[in-house]
Write the structure tokens for this entry.
Amino acid sequence: MKTLSHRLTRLLRLLPAGVAMAALANPLLAAPLTLDQALTLAEQHSPSLQAAKANLEASKAAARTAGAYPNPELEIMGGQIRPRQSTGVETSRIDTATLSQPLELPNVRSARKQVAAAGIGIGQSQYDQTRLNLISQIKLAYFDALRWEEARRVIGENRELLQQMRDRVKLKVDVGEAPRYELIKAEAETMAADNALKNAELRTRQAKTLLRSLIGTPLPDPLQLQHGANTPAQPPALDELEQEVLRNHPQLHQAQAQTEQALARVDFERSQRLPQPTLKLNQERTRDSNQWMVGVALPLPLWNQRSGQIGEAVAGLHQAEAQAQQTRLTLIAELEQAYSRYEIASSQVKTFESGLLQEAEAAMKVAEAAYRYGERSILDYIDAQRVLRSTQLEFLNARYELQAALVELERLRATPVAGDLS
């Protein structure tokens, strides 16, 4: 027992050193998580991306299947020949072997391979779209967590200041230098700041939880993020953006591949109206003879001329063409909405940065100085502090809206940008 206790004591003493070594071995434990690291980890561990990759591999396997030739069929039978009457003929053995090889017409094989090749394009487009959406979702979650962390800092500083103000007001109320309603007002503002701080902490945890689920791998707790992440690049003009969307977006590539696949399926169904022959080689062996026969089996399209299958394929083609047009219209509408959001958010951020924040800070300092010298009441000071806090939080929201609009424009443009998955 003493030996076991001694070993446990040594193990507990070594735990801090072990944690330190793990932090050195894993940079995610030793430093805040950067946006580039989050994207790289998602590339390696995201379940949605792995599922899309598996779907792409399945489409490639289906293309190999479509290119394979039909297997031959070997049929072996054996039996006996018995005479019906006693004519002196002895019972003998008969053996039969038949080799059948289906023969595909070139147009049938070509159409089937085109259907499978278009399936690869669909799988690749779905993978690209999943990857693009994952990049956007990770960036939004990352920026959202940074916003609420910054909001928590602002609210925390405001809460500390309000607590100091409440303590000073309480002291003045106790000595009779200030009316009691000022203390009530200060306590109410402090309680509101407490609730706002709890809300900011909750929203921060929610954003980080979403980020963890998107990355798909265990991360340190608490998760530290690298502040100062780069805002996405400013977009070009709307006309140029529209051309990029129509040229690059995976949804349009997928719609085009689906149309090509539907067209190839129409050709495949039509090509199957012609009978597909089967080459047969037969050998029959008895005691007295050895027979060889070569023939061709040809199905007769009398009752089923594949009119139903061809009609379904044609309807699928029309549906794919309509869906491609709808996808194009939807993406253009999303682009216009995202660009409008970008313009509004950009204007708001410029308004805050051009002087609104400085004016709110200056007004709070004037109110603080006036309160200290007895020229203003505590209510004026609290109002100025509330205006400053609201202005700072609105600025954080406006900056996040700008980042979100830029991320959405990046998603629609579908162009490689800094920090994307490699």
